[in-house]
Amino acid sequence: MNHIAPSPSLPPFAPWSETFVADPYPAYDALRAAGRAHWFEPTRQWLIPHHDDVSALLRDRRLGRSYTHRFSHQEFGRTAPPPENEPFTTLNGNGLLDLEAPAHSRIRRLVAKAFTPRTVEQLAPTVERLAAELVTSFHADGGGDLLARVAEPLPVAVIAEMLGVPPADRGLLRPWSAAITGMFELNPTEDTARRAVAASEEFSGYLRGLIAARRTDPGEDLISALIAVQDDGDTLSEQEMISTCVLLLNAGHEATVNTTTVGWLTLFHHPEQLALLSESPDRLRDGVEELLRYDTPLQMFERWVLDDIEVGGTVIPRGSEVALLFGSANRDPARFRDPDRFDVTRPAADNRHLTFGAGIHYCLGAPLARLELSASFGRFLRHAPGMRLLAEPRWRPGYVIRGVEELLVSW
Fold it and tell me: What's this model's pTM, rounded to 2 decimal places?
């Protein structure tokens, strides 16, 4: 089949526009109506807006987060990462999110032996305690910035507890995470790259010290478990452990922070839904899934085309990059009834959103994220009713990982 030329006119997709970032959903509606695959010249990517296509391509082994397991950079028509981007390139390249089989299968199997459902289950009392402390203190002070006081500290504290990071060092984690994840935005600047490189070097060095300490004095933390885990004599290398720990912080932390703040903004904008949750705490499980669907914190997930694929009659050739639009997929009327309606009673069992991905790269930390969100929202709903929004927040300039700069509330 011949490649079909993209349409010269594209519905308004403007990821660097503050207006678009604040509300990308009308543009998603236009993209879905216009077709199933759209060429976006500024990033040289194919935009995929429909739920069924996004879901299928996440599972399609003709695509990958990486291509170097099959091709050299030259063979794939791409240039190698610049040497000045080390050690970010090595840190990111050894994480589960950017690996493909067989390396991905091997590392995920080993990590899963250490980061088990029981690990998350055992964290539940700690998560509840931390959420209670943060919300109680925030409420006692009459409110303030929910982002800085609750949304950010909770997942950082949980990850730190899980990894065994001493309390005195926990303030380092959030700035490192923010700097590194800046590289996941579209066309990052040189300054963004410099910050990510510096954070990668500092974070990696810090984790090497923790790993060395746990080798001589193991504890009950995840790092000790990662050191000890083996499968038929196979173990994780130091770099693989470091990349895994950084990914757990970055992926889990950024998603939980933004779901918390954007979720509360959504509830403030839908007071009748907030009242439903407040009156019936048993709806919280369904409510959390609806918050994850309605305004997903990760709007886009990129993948390389390793072999020619066809989407809606358009052939996308090997060497291309597709941008899977999670935010659009989660509002697709072909999959969700009345998708632009925020409904905390939408049954979780039927709320098949793609916020945590699908296929081999399905989010390893999804159970932990759900635990944190349930603890945080549950604590607010049970013990701090009457909270109100003081001012509409500004959205951060990033589009891929989307969130607000602050969320000012009061009682």
Answer: 0.93
